[in-house]
Amino acid sequence: MTLAQPSNDQTQRLQQLASGQPTLWTNPALTDTTLAHGTGETPAVGPAHMLAAEARFGRFAPLLAELFPELQPAGGRIESELLPAPALQAALGMPADFGKLLVKADHGLPVAGSIKARGGIHEVLELAERLALEHGLLQLDADYRVLASPAVKALFSRYEVAVGSTGNLGLSIGVMASALGFRATVHMSADAKAWKKDRLRARGVRVVEHAGDYEQAVAAGRRQAAQDQFIHFIDDERSLSLFLGYSAAAPNLGRQIEALGITVDAQHPLFVYLPCGVGGAPGGITFGLKQLYGPHVHCFFAEPVQSPCFLLRMLDRRDTAPSVYDIGLSNRTEADGLAVPRASDLAADVIGDELSGVYTVADDTLFRHLYLARQHAGLQVEPSAAAGFSGPAMLRETAEGKAYLKRHGLLPVMQAATHIAWTTGGLFVPEAEYRKFLERGVSLEPV
What we know:
There is one protein chain. The chain is of the alpha/beta class. The chain has 17 helices and 11 strands. It folds into 2 domains: 8-112 and 243-443, Rossmann fold; 116-238, Rossmann fold (3-Layer(aba) Sandwich), CATH 3.40.50. 43% of the residues lie in helices and 13% in strands. Strand 4 (160-165), helix 6 and strand 5 (183-188) form a beta-alpha-beta unit. Helix 10 crosses helix 11, helix 14 packs across helix 17 (431-443) and helix 15 (391-397) crosses helix 16. Mean pLDDT is 92; it is low at 34-40.
């Protein structure tokens, strides 16, 4: 496809994107609304949908604690810490008069080891709940540990859960589907890491490898599922259940922010930096946070310079999303979880007018920040999960960032701001692989 006829400003931005240089775009259409919204074929969603997803996680908590011993200390809740990071803030060159940096540590989420534990697991749980209710094997007010019974597992074994993935989403869905008794298949793209495929196979998940990229793996899985009524395909580009599963992170984050004594209001703005692949995970979180904090939270997506699919989508809001290949980019990046050529229409439709901006990051910066996160905060993340650490500097040091702060009247209150870098994966990276990440990061540090 070809891009729509761009304006002069869009032409300049597209040329900058095509050059593969880091850039920041801020949203001229940003609104203050937190009303239910959706466009075209996207259903309207609002706060009740987010709370319903959170409640579903709560109903399943006793069962999850039984299936996964690592969840027993948290009572079956899949959650991550919110960590102050003063030493990392200093290492990143962020001054105290620009606010305080924290890390939302989804790289350490149990069971799946990444942010995908939220959306991917939620959709598997929603499927399990629906099937068990339809077949009279569950009541909503029951103890959900009944879903581990032989009768329920016999039902689930008739169904296959399938997904297309570069790795982390496949891990979350494959692990949970297999634990509940579903057959599980993950269609994986050529850029997926070998260790992620091995981990899935060790859990009894069928891995189908494709020579193409993420988009082609998803399309192959979608075609297969269309031919079999007993295959439930989890579609990262189109799934509302995935999206709402991610949004369920917001209420707990709100409680964590309150527990740390942090205020979020006009005088104490909140900035959140979210690594972005297809857009479902950061989109769902942005949607949830906007329900809590409205105009006082400013959400920015972070993408690799060769895979800025969401930024490209925000520049071209036609019915059909453009691809990074359309502007001559390669979609090749060491941030495998973010190597996506085309953005989710659903995510763009729901949060496009609430997103503060998108910035792009070079791979070398990801590795350098990965090293700094380990050295100064003891965090073990994968390259894609380091994308959020560039956010404060993009706002503080670029003309676009300064203009955004001025336009929204934020310059006088930045000293009281809170910045959250959301780390998205890393818990299960093999030690030998992680050592290579660190070595590359060390080599990029100034002497």
